[in-house]
Amino acid sequence: MKLKYIFASIVATLALISCEKEADHYLKEVKVSTSYVSLSTGVGANTPITVTATDSWNITVPQSAASWLTVSPLSGGAGETTVTFSAPAGEGRNAEVILTCAGKTQRINVIQGVVTVSNATCAEVLSGPDDKTYRVTGVVTSIVNTTYGNWYLNDGTGEVYIYGTLDSKGATKNFLSWGLEVGDEITVEGPKTTYNGTVELVDVTVVKINKSLIKVDAVDYGENLDAIPVDGGDVNITVSCKGNGIDVVIPESAKTWLGVTFIDNSEGLVRLSARPNEGGDRSATVTFITTDGRKDYTSETVISQKGAIVAATVKEFLDAAEGSVVYRVSGVITSMYASDKQNKSFYIRDYSGEVLIYRAEGFEKTDAKVGDVVTVTGVRTSYKDTPQMGTTKFESLDHVVTEISIADFLESGQNNAWYRVTGTVTEIANDVYGNIYITDGTKILYIYGCYPGVGATGDARKGVVADKGIKVGDKLTVFGPKSVYKDVPQVNGGYFWSVTPANAE
Fold it and tell me: Which domain does 72 fall in, by range?
């Protein structure tokens, strides 16, 4: 007798046993004509059952079966109701449907065809149909979640995402009980699904684990260090190896700064050396390989090196590539980012451009506000293709800028304090550097230099009058420090904030 017919016979026998047991174990609140529903594998497969209830009831179909199993109706009231189970053509699928009535639960097992497990490669899983159960063997390449057990499996033909791993008793949220590590060889089985284009095996059962013959035990950067210093240096890696020798693979992108200087196979010691780092923080995933003569085993660790923080203008930051380089950027806060409920995100602007600073750690501990000049550090990231600063730290509140009237600026403003003032342009004394007189209607204030923005030096200070189209009669707002020249208060080296044309008022 062929194997699939043996399975069919077993399933049928179990169904009969189930039915016999049901006769003695009906719930008082709800009864079903059968708790086992078998669907044919052809087109239009459907099977009705009868639900007899003393109260209202509802049926829940598991998410894993929602793509192929239809149950109608999903709810009803007291009395007798015909419930139909249907599915499109398919085989090897099963689900457990939950019927609830008056606080009691009745489980209904649904099967379409004979559920068999297909031994497959990753490539066959990737190209195969959803809802089918596969058994696949490969190496753990990355572990994403250690509670539910989400990780990647690769067998050389492709890579499959494992979404959920059951423990030895079939329970969830106990992934760590397996002691699984990157580099281990493992055999699992579970149903395939595709979520947002990603192929997954869901809530897999572990069949077999072959521990890797090589494992990274310790990474020693030196006393009290968690990375190679910015000036360069060595890192010692202790490796347990039960195979034939140790080979080290450094990714191509890191070979310009990281290299192998020593390997002691007998002691399991590997020494790597890094060159001085003139950029931001950097890291590389280094792979350690051994063999038993038949196949290779691997283990990985991330090697990190501290970097200098790169000072940059907003434009230089925006033009940089995404990565781990840390930048220092200064600018005036132009607005808060309303979508951030933590209230730690804001836009800053310097003379070269404007950028979103996303969730700057430490910002909430300061009194910084819109209009103040600040310095932040972070890496170049993006959201929906729009550049922003991420992994951000609030470094300093450079200047507190107080909004003030021209009269108060002249009479009570403190020297070297920063203010933001607004007035109508009465004269442009120098259109290159922006030496401008503004008035509030009674008092006149001299702006000794109106520059494009924070950080402007040299020629970058020039041209704001022409660039912004500033004219006599326009309403101009600038910010900057107060000073006194020949007993006359002035804004000494101000920065452009905004302009409203006279004809727009």
Answer: 3-112
